[in-house]
């Protein structure tokens, strides 16, 4: 449980900053929101999180494109069924690919683009009511740590953006940021993300 909770959150944190550093206007937009809500205080508190609407959309979009565990907990069919063109007999083990669902062009416009604004006026959420977006799974086998993970991830991202500006190392451009994934139960960046923090006075 401890490894599952830390690995997935760490992966999501890295992917969030990877996408933001590759999209400077979006980075500025979420920084503006965080710093406006923080209003000069020492840090962003848990009570501030409900006011950070754009940050929440950034986290959702990151989880849509980079679910930390893209293959959900296996299920077993209880009866014969048909999914699309496939006949699946009873007692068959089925593995659901959350990443494929999250980038399905049937449900998502420009599915491979990082566009947090798509969630600003959308009721689609990851709590199991919208089957086109399942980074935490759904039902009895959904992630039991979902609420804690989301709160922790939002607090970390918010405070990193509140206290620091972030830049790529000297001589590196946005085009140099490698997006290749490392295969595993939890999907990390294959090449570690390296950013330079600039502490705000």
TrEMBL record:
<keyword id="KW-0479">Metal-binding</keyword>
<keyword id="KW-0503">Monooxygenase</keyword>
<feature type="binding site" description="axial binding residue">
    <location>
        <position position="143"/>
    </location>
    <ligand>
        <name>heme</name>
    </ligand>
</feature>
<keyword id="KW-0349">Heme</keyword>
<dbReference type="GO" id="GO:0020037">
    <property type="term" value="F:heme binding"/>
</dbReference>
<dbReference type="InterPro" id="IPR036396">
    <property type="entry name" value="Cyt_P450_sf"/>
</dbReference>
<dbReference type="Pfam" id="PF00067">
    <property type="entry name" value="p450"/>
</dbReference>
<dbReference type="InterPro" id="IPR001128">
    <property type="entry name" value="Cyt_P450"/>
</dbReference>
<protein>
    <recommendedName>
        <fullName>Cytochrome P450</fullName>
    </recommendedName>
</protein>
<keyword id="KW-0560">Oxidoreductase</keyword>
<dbReference type="InterPro" id="IPR017972">
    <property type="entry name" value="Cyt_P450_CS"/>
</dbReference>
<dbReference type="GO" id="GO:0004497">
    <property type="term" value="F:monooxygenase activity"/>
</dbReference>
<dbReference type="GO" id="GO:0005506">
    <property type="term" value="F:iron ion binding"/>
</dbReference>
<keyword id="KW-0408">Iron</keyword>
<dbReference type="GO" id="GO:0016705">
    <property type="term" value="F:oxidoreductase activity, acting on paired donors, with incorporation or reduction of molecular oxygen"/>
</dbReference>
<dbReference type="InterPro" id="IPR002401">
    <property type="entry name" value="Cyt_P450_E_grp-I"/>
</dbReference>
<dbReference type="InterPro" id="IPR052306">
    <property type="entry name" value="CYP450_71D"/>
</dbReference>
<comment type="similarity">
    <text>Belongs to the cytochrome P450 family.</text>
</comment>
